[in-house]
Write a structure and sequence with these properties.
The complex is a heterotetramer.
Chain A (H helix, E strand, L loop, with lengths): L15 E10 L2 E11 L3 E7 L5 H8 L7 E6 L2 E3 L4 H6 L2 E4 L11 H6 L5 E4 L3 E4 L1 H15 L14 H14 L4 E5 L7 H16 L3 E5 L3 H7 L2 E6 L2 E7 L5 H9 L24 E8 L8 E8 L4 E5 L6 H8 L7 E6 L2 E2 L5 H6 L2 E4 L3 H5 L6 H6 L9 E2 L2 E2 L1 H14 L16 H12 L6 E5 L7 H16 L3 E5 L3 H7 L2 E6 L2 E7 L5 H8 L12
Parallel strand pairs in A: 3-10, 3-11, 6-9, 9-10, 15-22, 15-23, 18-21, 21-22
Antiparallel strand pairs in A: 1-2, 1-4, 4-5, 7-8, 11-12, 13-14, 13-16, 16-17, 19-20, 23-24
Chain C lengths: L6 E4 L10 H16 L3 E4 L4 H14 L4 E4 L5 H10 L4 E5 L8 E6 L1 H15 L13 E6 L4 H17 L4 E6 L6 H13 L4 E5 L3 H12 L2 E6 L10 E7 L1 H13 L8 E4 L6 E3 L11 H16 L7 H4 L7
Parallel strand pairs in C: 1-2, 1-3, 3-4, 4-5, 5-11, 6-7, 6-8, 8-9, 9-10
Antiparallel strand pairs in C: 10-12
Helix pairs in contact in C: 1-8, 4-5, 4-9, 6-7
Chain D lengths: L1 H30 L7 H19 L2 H24 L5 H22 L6 E3 L21 H6 L2 H19 L1 H11 L1 H6 L4 H25 L4 E3 L6 H11 L4 H16 L1 H6 L4 H5 L1 H21 L2
Antiparallel strand pairs in D: 1-2
Helix pairs in contact in D: 1-6, 1-7, 1-9, 1-10, 1-11, 2-3, 2-4, 2-9, 2-10, 3-9, 6-7, 7-9, 10-11, 10-14
The chains are: A alpha/beta, B mainly alpha, C alpha/beta, D mainly alpha.
One adenosine-5'-triphosphate binds next to α5 of chain A.
Amino acid sequence: MSATIVQPRGSVEIRIGANRIFKSYGSVQANRNVSISVGPRQIHAVVGENGAGKSTLMRALQGLETVDGGEVIVDDLPVRFSGPQQAISEGIGMVHQEFMLAPELTLLENLVLGDEPTRPSFGFLQTVDWDVALGEARQIGERAGISIDWHRSTSTAPVHIQQYVEIFRLLRRGSDVLILDEPTAVLAPQQVEQLFGLLRQLRENGASIIFISHKLQEVEALADHVTIMRKGETVASASVDEMNTSQMTRYIMGENAKAAQQTRGEPGRPKDTGAPLAKITGLNAHTANAQQPLYNISMDVSCGEIVGIAGVAGNGQEELIECLVGLRKAQSGSISINNAELYNAENASFRAHGQGYVSPDRAHEGLAKSATIEANVMAGSQREPAFLRGPMLDRTAFRKEARARLDRLDVQYGTLNDPVSSLSGGNQQKLVFARETARHPKLLVVSQPTRGVDLNGIATIHSYLLSHRETGGSVVLASEELDELMFLCDRILVMSMGRFVGEVSRAEFSPQKIGELMLADPLPQKAANG
Amino acid sequence: MVDGGSENVVAIDARPPRWTLAAENAMRFSLPVLLAFLAGAVLLLAIGENPVAIYQLMLSEGFGSERRIAATLSASTPLLFTAVATAVCFRSGVFNVGVDGAFVLGGLGAAVIGYALPVALGWTIAPLAIGSAMLIAAFWLWVPGVLLAKLEVDEVVSTLMLNFVALGISGFLVNSVFLSETSGNNTTETIHEVAELSRLLPPSTLHSGFLLGLLCVLGYAFWTQRTPQGFEAALVGFNNRFARSVGISVPGTIILVMIISGLVSGAGGAAHALGQVHKFSDGFSAGYGFTGMAIALLARNSAIGILLGAILFGALASAGTTVQLFSDIPLDIVNVIEGTVMIFAVVELGRLTLWRGTGQ
Amino acid sequence: AADVKPAALIIAQGGLGDGSWNDTANAGFQAGLTATGITGKAIESKDVVAQGEEIMRRAADGGFGLVASLEWIHGEPMEKLAADYPDVNWVIMNQTRKGDNVASVVFAEHQGSFLAGALAAQVTVDTSIKGINEQAVIGVIGGVKAPGIDKFIVGYIQGAKAINPDIEVKVAYSESFGDPAKGEQLAKAMFNEGADIVYQVAGGTGIGIIEAAKAEGKFAIGVDTDQDSMAPGNVLTSMVKRVDVATESIIRDYADGKFPGGKVLQFGLDVKGVALSDMNHTKDIIPETYLARVDALKADIISGKIEVWDVSASGYPDFFK
Amino acid sequence: MSDMIDQVLASTLILTTPILLAAIGGLVNRQGGIVNIALEAKMLAGAFVSVVVSSATGSWFLAVVAAALFASLVGLVFSLTITRARANMIISGLGFNVLVAGLLGFLLSRIYGTSGTLRFPDVQLLPRILPESVSTIPIFGEALAALDPLTAFAWLSVGALPFLLANTRIGLRLRAAGNAAQVVRAVGLREKTIQDFGTVFAGFFSGLAGAHLALYSIGLFNEGLTAGRGFIALAAFYFARNQPVQTAMACLLFGLLDATQIRLQTAGYPPKLMGTLPYVMVIVSLCIASWSQKKKAHT
Ligand SMILES: Nc1ncnc2c1ncn2[C@@H]1O[C@H](COP(=O)(O)OP(=O)(O)OP(=O)(O)O)[C@@H](O)[C@H]1O
Ligand SMILES: Nc1ncnc2c1ncn2[C@@H]1O[C@H](COP(=O)(O)OP(=O)(O)OP(=O)(O)O)[C@@H](O)[C@H]1O
Ligand SMILES: [Mg+2]
Ligand SMILES: [Mg+2]
């Protein structure tokens, strides 16, 4: 473990930086006079609300974006990148928020893509030398302490493995500047620790790491230095020792800082109707493209409670939620809402029986990105009698309702005809809530409601969920944020390997207890399931 | 099945777009056309013709008199149907390129009914023929619709292939069972006179099928802007995962738009058979389905764009032919212009990034 | 003839370049124009079926004095137009249309094909000719299956059967008029099945059929124009159809003010509208008696003693469905 | 009888070659993420150039190379409309088919004063690789005797292609570009240029296909020469889900259908319906593939 993975480049003050960068997209000033400097052997966190301009800055550093003004600095000197190739050759590599791996290639193919070792074949042909590639891959994995089945198809590899492959790809190409855009968003706590271990090791070896996160604890735990952005500007930059999380929060939020912590009432007495509102019994699902099949899932949800679903990512939570909203077919079992049997019914039937659904994948499922705000907030209501005149849509009523919905959740928008992609992330998520709660659903199924949402947005969403519960509504809430679950839920069900491995009531909530359950092995011995 | 992507943001909204948007749409429509004519002009110059004079001639052949306008509208009639039939699907992200085959089979069905039913049925023959043609064509496109919706069989390939199959089947039928005894060619009998669609501006061949085509365009506009199904179809086109997660049946929508597309294609084939050709014969469709596709793209699925596009291509077809009477311009010029319009219609000129795309 | 109004020729489906019908007619048309000095245009359309009526009307409106169409389907609308424009002269092919100002031109392809069949049927069993086997098997390849093509094929079969009622005539269609590669393979297959003479009725595809005959040392029979020299010695004969003569002579008559309005111009064997070629490259290897037999049959057809089935007039005969 | 098998084999081999060449190009293109509907246009352009060059130089080899290069150029222009100008590939492809046919027609009539068919003197045809005497070998003799350089090249390419796609740099990058273009961009490669390579490759092979059609035996250009073979090629690699060897088998099958057409016609199958068989087969095979995949997914 002592071998170096990166080669430090001489001794410079600023390994990578930016000086007075300006960048606008049309009327949006994404970066205004932004400066940052990152030295060798430094982990530099960049934090800020959604839309603060972090990713834009990173893209500029990577040569993916031509800036309107200012300059990128490499090794103390200003440079002008003509494209990402140039940045890569300067040792600057980026792991994007969305994974940049070709799913149909093997992990090894993805690792070497763009810089393949070659050897002559048949005397005239240069072909990729897979032996050399595999040797390099094994070595690099070994140094980082991860063993990877390199011949595995990427689409079937676990998420954290994919992320490592991306980082290794950069290291293999000699990058000693790593830009990681929200790398922890998809990782389980243990995996985050493992990643941090690797990053610290890289820092020891001289790397410069830029790390974007919305989680300030992570910043405190990992980073040496933090730069805070707000509304396209850098508003503060300091050593992490000099700044605690509440100071960071103040910079991030600016004047609007709400009391981030809210008070939460005791669980309202579940509205006592005898039968539970939703009842799932003996659900089994194992379609081939599911990451994790479901085994014998049973649960009840009463009126007026928030039930949390916890688990390390990829242990079946996603599949369970999809079964619960009619977006995935199961093989056996029963799902009923209000005594109506809805097993394997379509999403529309679930909705008809009073269900709303907030998808974890806002970009691809929660919203139609290029459609108008009106279409997004009204989708699904087009057949409600209130908006119909005979067989026709009543456009006036439709638009009136759209405005009312947006106003109810205080969504900031331009006009109804703007594309929904013109909204900031938080406002997009509020729009999803505005749509899903408009019909006063009895049961809200909510997954990752605050992923990538800024603090103000989180506060609005949390208080909405709580008020929903106060008025007798129920919520099934899946989240990877343990804090969020513990703050909102009346009880938490923990999943591991597609099974429920335990239930924790509010009184017993503690990260330790839930964390233990999350890592529990529900099988007596390692069963053969692959 | 592809998501509609970022191209048409305002498809849902019926309100007149802001003027910038209107200007942009006008640009998007006219720029490809202008460029195509420019390409034609280069060729004309190359052969020593004066493009200005030729285009002037084409303009007057297309729109120079009431008769020429009527001829243009007559040539645009089948295109109204095929463009609407295409747009209905494209708008929902269903890349149906099989309108031509459906048009042909519908036309054959209508022609056969038009001559085979007893003449005593009188005026009822025409609606019967149109209705049957619509059913035949709807069934024809229902097949790839179901294959896409239920089995995820790529609709581009299936509909492209079905065009060849439709041509084969109709070619076989018109040469065997439905072959006219007295014909020196592969044609059916001529339909009964009572079954013919009336002519609007005699002596021009412009017939009431044109009105039916306009009705289709209007119906399409209405359907897209004013009905829940039209709204749902647009959402499916934007993002089918999203549509599914808000309770819209994606397979149902796919099948629905394919059926509508078939109904419109069939009506088009019937109108062409009953109003224009008065029989079915080899060469019944001069690639109307493909021209309709170019029009739908040029129009970015808007109803008004479809109307303008159909008239434009109708004019190109009618003027491009008769212009040969008064000049030495070969028909190939028209092909070049048409091919170029097709290509430029889908090229995003505004975002042309030559050697290095920054990409988003 | 400078004061004569211009003439228009509307090209049929398949367009110019089909190597057959449209091209030959246009050649005659152009020759006629050159000879008479009148102006004229050949018009192609991508949508010749549906737009025929508009095109013809435009020509009539546009000051053309003669409008001829090569497209079969234009016959019906032309009859109406001829009534609307009595001062314009109209020409239609392969069908008879009413009107004092309409000339109908009819070719007896079936008659010419009959003679080709009769010749082939005699040759195919004469093993003294190089490349000929003893089997009584010959072939014919059509471009597409359509009455206009089957008119040739039926005549050919009838002619062959007139010589030898038991002869086998293999029939195939290439489904294209411009696919020589396929024509070649089809012909090879026919040769392989025992046919030694293949009649091509497939326009551009036929080039491949003649190539195949050359390559295999067998025989092809050409069509439309004299194709004997395309593969000297391997084209037994060609069924020459003088569409060019027809169009040229009509233009000449029109220029001279003698337009044959209201008449049906029969281009049959009698007027050499159709005929077998001179067989410059093969007449030495074909026994005299065979040619004499063909001549006798020709005389019988002209005299009406033999009637050859015309698919385009009478539909399909029982022996060919 | 055995004579007949000989002949069918030889015919099949020869009729397969142009489809196979075009399909090889199309499948590589498709692996790179572009569905090439314009194969037909490029074949036609290649056929035209091959005839002109063969006549002018008297060399079949130069003719073939020129055809491939010119068709590559057409492929490049086509590719640029898709990769740089973001044209919809299906429509652009159909547009190119119309455009190229129009331009060639225009050339023919304006420069060569002819229409439809272009005949040139002294066109040198493709040679046969093996001596005439091989035709005496039973069963395969005829096919071997018919073997020309392009047919041999096509089959060699089929053999080499799986290896090349898996093991060459460009093969890997092409597959990556077809699978996830943004990834290719993120690792610093120009995904558009890689895709352009795929389309140029398709152009190159379609050009060869056109040259084979024109120069195998007839030695002339005809507007209808390609006769929809570009679409049959498309059908073939869709049928075979982009796998080189399976694609070649599909092409052979379609070639066999063509070669046996006479026999099938004589057996009473209507030619028009027979012609639809490849297309029907593609649809059926796509259905079966999807259906079995679905079934697999549910067990
Ligand atoms: N390609 C683009 N076109 C138009 N506007 C853009 C584009 N990229 C970013 N923006 C806008 O620029 C601003 C800054 O965006 P950026 O992605 O840099 O924010 P961020 O800080 O990374 O936010 P998040 O935390 O949500 O990732 C936002 O208002 C965004 O909408
Ligand atoms: N290093 C690796 N390279 C490739 N595949 C791996 C690797 N480690 C685990 N896998 C595969 O991932 C699957 C799950 O493995 P494992 O149980 O180790 O992951 P986990 O961490 O428990 O799950 P999760 O993906 O939810 O984090 C197994 O099928 C295993 O083959
Ligand atoms: Mg970001
Ligand atoms: Mg014989």
